[in-house]
Amino acid sequence: MKELLRSNDPTIIAFASALLQGEGIDCFEMDVNMSVLEGSIGILPRRLMVRQDDLSAAEVVMADNNIALGRDR
């Protein structure tokens, strides 16, 4: 799995997941339950992961929908 997107905004993660699923690209959201550790203040970003083989296609989907990939390359 490779990181596609990192964001503190759960709506962006949900939107990106829906777009990817619509294109037939499997994705997995990580760090969802970190709010228990941080006290639900939203400082720890969630990550959206995709398979290595789907990374390029997923990046195109994000670019086509003006979703910035908040991650380090």
TrEMBL record:
| UniProt-listed InterPro entries | DUF2007, N-reg_PII-like_a/b
Entry's Pfam families?
DUF2007 (PF09413)
Q: Which domain of life is it from?
A: Bacteria
Residue ranges annotated for the DUF2007 domain, each copy included: 1-64
Which Gene3D superfamilies does this entry report, sorted A to Z?
A: UreE, C-terminal domain (3.30.70.790)
Q: Know the name of this protein?
A: Putative signal transducing protein
Tell me the organism: Shimia isoporae
